[in-house]
TrEMBL record:
Transmembrane segments: 20-44, 56-77, 89-113
Name listed for the protein in its UniProt record: Uncharacterized protein
Domain of life assignment: Bacteria
Keywords annotated in UniProt: Membrane, Transmembrane, Transmembrane helix
């Protein structure tokens, strides 16, 4: 390659995806909001019905909302000069919301079907 030409980007590599390199972050907030709404929509009925452990769905729902709020803060406070850091933080927030919600739902589901002696 010529010294004047930049390296070609391989968009099939995870670190070169446009959502992690060039996005403004708005799509992460939209999808994160939808994920949070769906998660809270599943967790709150679990909490209201009193499935054991009773505190877990509430804690997971609160954690999801707090993480989404932190995503919002990261989107508007991390400067454009650190775009990859901003997008990385938004991606980590999405993964955290998904992981917390899934773990909580699975724990409550297994606890609900496990007989207590």
């Amino acid at each position: 390659m010529d010294a004047d030409r930049p390296e070609p980007h391989d968009e099939t590599r995870m670190t070169e995806q446009p959502a992690l390199t060039f996005s403004t972050g708005l799509i992460w907030l939209i999808v994160g909001g939808l994920l949070t709404a769906i998660a809270v929509g599943v967790l709150i009925p679990e909490a209201v019905t009193g499935l054991p452990p009773r505190w877990l769905p509430w804690a997971a729902a609160i954690a999801d909302v707090v993480i989404y709020a932190l995503m919002f803060v990261a989107r508007f406070t991390v400067p454009v000069t650190h775009l990859r850091r901003r997008l990385g933080l938004l991606a980590i927030g999405m993964l955290a919301i998904a992981a917390i919600s899934l773990a909580s739902v699975l724990i409550v589901a297994f606890a609900a079907v496990t007989p207590v002696k």
